Here is the input.
Amino acid sequence: MKKTKLRKVSKQRAKENREYSKVLSSWRQHRIAKDGYLQCQFVGLPYSLDEWYDTDGRCIGRAMTAPHHKKGRHGKLLYDEKFFMALCAFHHSWVEDNKREARRRGLILYK
Ligand SMILES: [Zn+2]
Here is the structure.
């Protein structure tokens, strides 16, 4: 079989995907060890539609299995747990839809 550039790229991509899922599963384990389950890390308003939050005002929604990347997903940042944040679907969209406010609160750290 002739090797093409496309094949090479997708092999690289496959390797990145494997690496990423390894990082994610260890990140999830850390989060679960800390909170008992994969809890959303969003604190304060707006509360999710269910208005579930603990006494510290932290959302108690179940987070999505992939984190929000506070510093973006560029290059090695994709794997950097320091900048991962567990967010439920509601707060994930909130951050996406309210970038300016999210940046003000330190939830978005890239330019
Ligand atoms: Zn949440």
